[in-house]
Design brief:
The complex is a heterodimer of chains A (190) and B (240). Chain A is mostly helical and 190 residues long. Chain A contains 9 helices and no strands. Chain A has 2 domains: 1-103, Rna Polymerase Sigma Factor, Chain: A; 105-190, Orthogonal Bundle (Arc Repressor Mutant, subunit A). Chain B folds into 3 domains: 11-55, no CATH class; 84-126, no CATH class; 134-237, no CATH class. Chain B is built from 6 helices and 8 strands; from the N terminus they run H-H-H-H-H-H-E-E-E-E-E-E-E-E. Chain B has helices spanning 11-16, 21-33, 35-55, 65-73, 84-93, 99-130, and strands at 136-142, 150-155, 162-167, 174-184, 187-196, 200-205, 215-222, 235-237. Chain B has an 8-stranded antiparallel beta sheet with strand order 5-4-7-8-1-2-3-6, covered by helices on one side. In chain B, helix 2 (21-33) crosses helix 3 (35-55). The longest helix of chain B is centred in the middle third of the chain and has 32 residues, at 99-130. Chain B is globular. Classes of the chains: A mainly alpha (190), B alpha+beta (240). At the A-B interface, helix 2, helix 3, helix 4, helix 6 and helix 7 of A face helix 1, helix 3, helix 4, helix 6 and strand 1 of B.
Chain lengths: 190, 240
């Protein structure tokens, strides 16, 4: 039998960030308890190996510490804020610290937005994860591919166009359609 | 709300991080002053990062990562949230005594020098790491004594492991000393592995053998070196 999974409450998340903003390092640890695993999992997929993911995870939580006072709840959830910080830290790593060959994630490796891995239910509960999978699964393959290449691979629209031999206008259109669909479908039941 | 054209078409790609640098900067500036686009962006990001959370690899982070993150920040100061632009506006609105501009001009020159030197150090460190041709690179974590300290162990496919380090110059009579942490019956045993009396960005060859999975630490010691660490590590990785 699985232990009961408690999905963090958004208001509690905001209180945690307020404590971090007040200089409470233990609150940073509690935020790590909630989202450290998924943050590491995102970085692990964006970067070439566990060492890089570990290094960038530390940088990202340091950025959380530094930016805690700038967090604005009306601009998004703590989970999104933290994962955006992780994504930006990974992009920085790729540009400045990654060895030349490591900076690039191959088109094949990045080409699918979702993985088959079990989701951390403290971050997204099982039903919601199934819904997200269904929404993403309904996107045309080409749209899923551009999302994945941009997000996991770090490719810009013009790079995707060049590497896949697709007209830039088509890539832009696929990004727009896919993101709008994600937004509409995932916002509805939130 | 500002009067520019809303970048509605490009906002999804901006949220996705798929714009080139110039396009990104234009939209970032717009969002700072446009509540409508900021709200739209937030909705795109909520959806995208929820999908990312489902798409993440389900893998255990290193067991000591939480401890290192917390220890690094215990007792550290949280920077002010007020943006530089807000602070500049606030400053310009306040009355200024006559001597202040001169003092500020001097401070600005000094500050520019410090910032320039600091950025140069960060760039040199990044270049040094980027120049590693092969092998494995394992970062040491700053422990809080010097949050800006950086070091990484380079374990080449051929040849001896070495450190790439970014640290300030040690005080007179002191040196940075590297240690290889070997497993002992009652905890890790620190074996001296070289000293450096310099600062900035430098490399330091490990004079002690580094076995698979052994840790590395750097402490501040007397320039003559110590047989055992006498201060807390400024940089540490428990397992390479």
């Amino acid at each position: 039998m699985h232990p009961e999974v408690v999905v963090p409450d958004k208001a509690d998340d905001v209180k945690l960030v307020e404590r971090i903003a007040g200089g409470d390092a233990d609150a940073l640890g509690e935020l790590y308890d909630r989202y450290g695993r998924v943050a590491f999992g995102v970085l692990y997929r964006m970067l070439p190996g566990p060492e890089a993911a570990e290094e960038v995870a530390q940088d990202a939580f340091h950025s959380v510490w530094r930016q805690a006072r700038s967090y604005r709840a009306e601009r998004g959830s703590v989970r999104t804020w933290l994962l955006a910080i992780c994504r930006n830290a990974a992009i920085d790593w790729r540009r400045t610290r990654g060895k030349r060959l490591e900076r690039e994630v191959t088109i094949e490796a990045a080409a699918e937005l979702l993985s088959d891995a079990k989701v951390d239910e403290r971050v997204v509960d099982r039903l919601r994860a199934a819904h997200v999978r269904a929404v993403v699964g309904q996107l045309p393959r080409e749209q899923r591919e551009v999302l994945a290449l941009a997000f996991w691979g770090g490719y810009s629209q013009s790079e995707i166009a060049a590497r896949t031999g697709t007209p830039l206008g088509t890539v832009k259109s696929r990004v727009r359609l896919a993101m709008n669909k994600l937004r509409e479908s995932l916002e509805d039941e939130r | 709300m500002n009067q520019e054209r809303h970048p509605t078409e490009d906002l999804p790609a901006y949220a996705l991080g798929a714009l080139d640098r110039d396009e990104r900067e234009v939209i970032a500036r717009h969002i700072e002053t446009c509540a409508t686009c900021a709200r739209d962006l937030a909705q795109f990001e909520e959806a995208l990062f929820e999908a990312a959370a489902v798409g993440a690899v389900n893998v255990d982070p290193p067991t000591d990562l939480r401890t290192r993150i917390v220890l690094r920040h215990r007792g550290a100061r949280v920077p002010s949230a007020t943006s530089w632009s807000d602070r500049a506006i606030e400053f310009l609105r306040s009355p200024v005594p006559a001597a202040v501009p001169i003092a500020l001009a001097i401070l600005l020159v000094v500050a520019l020098g410090v910032v320039g030197a600091s950025r140069q150090q960060a760039d040199s460190y990044a270049r040094a790491l980027a120049g590693v041709a092969d092998g494995r690179v394992v970062a040491l974590a700053p422990t809080g004594a010097n949050p800006d300290a950086r070091a990484a162990v380079v374990i080449p496919t051929q040849g001896s492991p070495y450190l790439i380090v970014r640290l300030p110059a040690p005080p007179t009579g002191k040196a940075w000393e590297a240690w290889v942490l070997k497993a002992g019956s009652s905890g890790p045993v620190a074996v001296p592995a070289g000293t450096a009396e310099r600062g900035d960005v430098f490399t330091l060859s490990l004079s002690a053998p580094l076995g698979a999975g052994e840790g590395v630490a750097i402490t501040l010691e007397p320039a003559s070196g110590s047989a055992q660490p006498t201060t807390q590590p400024v940089l540490l990785v428990e397992k390479t």
